[in-house]
Amino acid sequence: MSRTLLAPPPAAAPLGERTVTTAGWACAARLGPTVSRTPATVLRVPDRPAREGADGLEIAAWSPTCELGWSGRRPATVLLQGCAWQCAACPTPLLRDPMVGGAVPWAEVRAGLLGGASADGDTAGVDAVVLSGGEPTRQDGLVAALMQLRELGLATGLRTSGAYPQRLAAVLPLVDRLWLDIKAPAGLYRAATGAGASAHKAFASLRLALDAGVELQVRTVADPQLLGPADLAELARHLHDLGVRDHVIEAARPAEG
Question: Residue 246: is it exposed, middle or buried by C-beta count within 10 angstroms (0-12/13-18/19+)?
Answer without folding.
Answer: middle
